[in-house]
Amino acid sequence: MYDIVIIGGGPCGIASVIEAKHAGLAKILLLEKGENHSQTIRKFYKDGKRVDKEYKGLDSTTKGSVEFFDGTKESTLNYFDKLLDEGEFEAIFNVEVESVKKNGDYFEITTSKSGFKAKNVVVAIGRMGKPNKPDYKIPPSIMNLVNFNLNNCGNGEKIIVVGGGNSAAEYACELGKCNDVTLCYRKEKFTRLNDINEAAVYESEKNGSLKLLLGTDISELSNADGKVCVNFTDGKSEVYDRAIYAIGGSTPVDFLAKCGIEMNGEDPIIDEHFQTTTKGLFVGGDIASKKGGSIVVALNNAHTIIDYIVKNK
Ligand SMILES: Cc1cc2nc3c(=O)[nH]c(=O)nc-3n(C[C@H](O)[C@H](O)[C@H](O)COP(=O)(O)OP(=O)(O)OC[C@H]3O[C@@H](n4cnc5c(N)ncnc54)[C@H](O)[C@@H]3O)c2cc1C
């Protein structure tokens, strides 16, 4: 029987482990479906990405025992490596939690491989397990040329990046260094970019490494001789080697339902301690944040959750 099982090894899960250890909880288990912690950072941050402590104007003051600093993708992963290596707890990777069920005064956690029991459970699985997809169909024959991160990109390609947030801007500026890149956003103006990314986008446009297609929406994709033909709502079309969508992620509602978490639409119903309507079952990090979260917000959620668990033991 664990004092606490933490599902998801991203910033919220890692901070939950560290806070739980500091608070004196003895039996702690972290379950992560990837082969290592922080899958969102590994898969969706481009190499060398600047990681901002103050992100999207969200709270940037850490409240618990886990500090955070401006850095890069690599320094952030190194920092989380060290935090995990220093703590004494159990962690199992490559294990996907399938459901959580309350049974009397404890929880049964079922994974793809086995099962565990715990007095408290923190669900911190983020939103990027399911990146948002466009609502038009992507033809299966060009699926390999339509990506949601930078993993498969080469050099010298003609690429369209779709989205108007910081991820889209960073992907486009990075790819623009060695590809022919167009950044396509359906609105006339960027409204969600931080100052640095906004400046980088316009600088890249000025120096010719990025084309901007603002106020333009896409109606569908089709296959043009094995390439991606993008058909725009204004009737125009253009052929690209690759399309990259950076349009965020969505709440894993099916998984939360399997955990018996009551929802209000896409949002889990939680109180100020991030406790769901089931006592002892908590939700933290991106899935607890209506507008999309940040690393510091995830760390702070962990602090609030563990503080509450320890004070109400
Ligand atoms: C491209 C991009 C750039 C960003 N840049 C910044 C930035 O500069 N600064 C900043 O503060 N924030 C940034 N963010 C946001 C930040 O990454 C998130 O707010 C933060 O990662 C949320 O942490 P989390 O722990 O809630 O979830 P995540 O980091 O998403 O971690 C969830 C973990 O749970 C695991 N998991 C999922 N399902 C299961 C399951 N069923 N069983 C077991 N494990 C599971 C996943 O594999 C993953 O490792 C950025 C996000 C993106 C996508």
From TrEMBL:
Pfam families: Pyr_redox_3
Presence of the UniProt keyword Flavoprotein in the record: yes
Keywords for this protein: Flavoprotein, Oxidoreductase
Superkingdom classification of source: Bacteria
InterPro entries linked to this entry: FAD/NAD-bd_sf (IPR036188), Ferredoxin-NADP_redctase_2 (IPR050097)
Keyword Oxidoreductase: yes
PANTHER family given in the database record: THIOREDOXIN REDUCTASE 1-RELATED-RELATED
Name used for this protein in its record: NAD(P)-binding domain-containing protein
